[in-house]
Amino acid sequence: MTSIHSLEIPKPKNWQDFEAITLDALRLRWGSPNLSANGRPGQKQKGVDIFGPDDIGRRIGAQCKRYAKPLKIEMVKAEVENSDAFEPALNAIYIATTRDRDTKLQMEVRMYSDKRVSEGKSAVGLLFWDDIVGSLGANPSTFKSHFPNFTLPEAHAFHRDRLLAALNLGYFGSHLWDYAELIHGEFGWMANTDPDEFQIVLSIVRQCSHSFLPASERDAVVASLDEIVAIMNTEEVLNRGDWEKIQTLSKRVSKRLVSLSSVPILESNTLEVGRRLGAINHVQDDEVGAAQSAELKRQVDAILPYECAKRTAKKFAEADKMEYSYGYRWAPKVFAYVEQEIRFANPMRR
Question: 218-236: buried (b, 16+ CB within 10 Å) or exposed (e) per residue?
Fold first, then answer.
């Protein structure tokens, strides 16, 4: 499906339009209607075009620059140092630019920002044209007021049941054999795990397969699940050959689920979020690091309506701050949150 970033949105030809676009984009980005333009043309602005609170109440400022030439770190530093005179002091200053993303500059700004923060000064961030356009697109009517000749791509239809099925298939179905080992293996025996839990997992995957998978994939997956259930329900004690058969069938199911290609992008992304959370739950023995958490949060933000952003940030912060944020504790907490948000999300707010 076409995304807003695939549209050739024209860059503004004057700084006044760019500042107005950036102001509306940041109000939407942070859900902060109290962001304001600083002063009027001709007045000294002390390096700040836009100021006000962000979504967590920090005092932020933004300097809007329509650079014709590539933006360099020296130019960023000059603008940031001008903002140091702004009163009251800012917690963060952003340089908003019509330029495209630049990984080298982003790295340089991160290092520069860390140095400033260690000195008790404001943090520094960059907002490129894609960031600004993406934030503006959160509200189609606001976007239309700046770009009347462009129509945003229609949002994906929000099929709640299909998204829930995709999440569960990723979380449970993509790791079916891991669940079998966890419940019936040595760890399950030591933890006195209920052996019927694996049957419950099989039931979840079977039900979600019926409501989500294309017919050709569904029939193959359900057939494998039925074979597993038949083996599990035998009255005899399962032998090594039985478990090898269950392993083969389980991995066959998981392979089909992770290789799906004929589903809409939102559903595919939801399946991937479930799969990654399941992998952290089963495979990762150590704690979930900040970079890994941030990447998962970015993926979750991409599948949930934008109104969930603050709750998502809070839930990830809670998971990260657990005394022992090992994968098997961290992942279920995040999974339960995502499932809840999909279940009760407003489908009109994507």
Answer: beebbebbeebbeebeeee
CB burial readout 133-154, b (16+ within 10 A) else e = bbbbbbbeebbeebbeeeebee
Residue 82 and residue 171: Cα distance in Å, rounded?
A: 49
The whole-angstrom separation of Cα 18 and Cα 96 is: 9
Which sign, positive or negative, has the C-alpha torsion 202, 205, 208, 212? negative
Q: Count Cβ atoms below 10 Å from residue 168 Cβ, excluding itself.
A: 24
pLDDT tens sequence for the chain (350 residues): 445 655 778 888 888 899 999 999 998 888 777 889 887 655 566 779 999 988 778 899 999 988 778 889 999 999 999 999 998 899 999 999 999 888 899 999 999 999 999 999 999 999 999 889 888 877 777 888 899 888 766 544 457 888 999 999 999 999 999 988 887 766 545 445 666 888 899 999 999 998 888 887 889 999 999 999 999 888 678 888 999 999 999 999 999 998 876 677 788 889 999 999 999 998 777 889 999 999 999 999 888 887 888 999 999 999 999 887 788 899 999 999 999 999 886 654 44
CB atoms within 10 A of CB 306: 17
Locate tokens 């707010």: which residue?
Answer: 349
Q: Tell me, what DSSP letter sits at residue 65? A: E
Q: Identify whether the C-beta of residue 281 lies closer than 8 Å to the C-beta of residue 331.
A: yes
| Claim: this prediction has a pTM higher than 0.90 | no
Ordered by start, the domain boundaries in the chain are 4-146, 160-344
> What whole-number distance in Å separates Cα of residue 26 and Cα of residue 38?
14
CB 123 within 8 A of CB 117: yes
Instruction: Please state at what angle helix 196-212 crosses helix 176-184, rounded to 10 degrees.
Output: 170
CA distance 96 to 49: 10
| Alpha-carbon torsion (112, 113, 115, 121), positive or negative | positive
Topology of domain 4-146, CATH = Trna Endonuclease; Chain: A, domain 1 (3.40.1350)
